Amino acid sequence: MSNLPLPKRVLAVGAHADDIEFGCGATLAKWAAGGAAIDLCVLTDGSKGSWDPETDVAALIATRRQEQTAAAATLGARTVHFLDLIDGELVNDLDAQGALSDVLRHVRPDVVLGHDPWKRYRLHPDHRAAGFLTIDAIVAARDPHFFPGRGEPHRPDRLLLFEADVIDHVEDVHDFIDAKIQALLRHETQWRSTMGINPTSPDAEPFAKRIRGEAKEAADGTEYDLGEAFKLIEPL
Question: For the domain 9-233, what is the CATH superfamily, name and number?
Answer without folding.
Answer: LmbE-like (3.40.50.10320)
